[in-house]
């Protein structure tokens, strides 16, 4: 894994200085601190855990460092201490079976259900509409809140692995991504974007996020940062945003479409369109193009999507060939979006 070129476009979210890779490729340094890289995951957070990891790396104990970051419960801490992270075993077990195993160790049931059904829920296929963006661009793509990285295999059809960066606050999510979905040259960054987006200005060509914005407390700051890091001809999409009218999910807060659109435009994106999940899902099930124009149903929708650009937006978006094939053979699980069930294929 050679992240030298990718690391060069990052900056420390705390002191805003450039980040450089140190000898050995296990550490990076900025003006204020040193951060570790484990399993191709840059841990860009300042806390006691980070200090513990640096000590383990000094002792050449990567197994302990990984175990400390991957633990999610008391039982998992015991398990990971007794049994070093065993990649061949995990890969043989498979992604969904590994999640079931983690549930026995106290992994949250709600999140386990989401991860196991991620590639079967409507928001997954709605997120894949951005393949039209990716096909026409060759710059850096950043996937915010990438989770376990289920979307990466679809991105790789159109863009080289070293041009993709995944960011998530959970190290375990990123480690699952590294095990099952992310290629070795794709940099994964464990960071809290509410502290600041760790990118140099005008460094990203495409910014994407799915099922993510409603989990942020300071949406205004994040969207402003998106404008800072995106290039002059850059594009972006925020998929599956909960409406303010939607009953609040645990640890999530929705926002009105008009407010999000205004924030995006103020951050420097000239063109911005909000489209309801209902309209997008109807087009996907009918296998027709999604016309990027204002949707009157958005204001009252359960969830919606925003597509934006600093230059021009395409007139329409459509699923690619692989995405359409995957959709046709998938039995959709509507547990997250029951209001779309009447529009099922």
Kindly describe this structure.
With 345 residues, the protein is of the alpha/beta class. The chain has a domain at 119-343: 3-Layer(aba) Sandwich (Rossmann fold). The chain contains 15 helices and 13 strands. It has helices at 4-7, 48-58, 62-70, 74-82, 87-93, 95-104, 109-117, 122-127, 131-135, 152-155, 171-180, 219-229, 257-266, 277-286, 321-329; strands at 20-21, 27-29, 34-38, 41-43, 141-144, 164-168, 187-190, 204-210, 230-242, 271-276, 290-291, 303-309, 316-317. It has an 11-stranded mixed sheet with strand order 1-2-3-4-7-6-5-8-9-12-10, sandwiched between helices. Helix 3 packs antiparallel against helix 4 (74-82), helix 6 (95-104) runs antiparallel to helix 7 and helix 12 runs parallel beside helix 13. The longest helix has 11 residues, at 48-58.
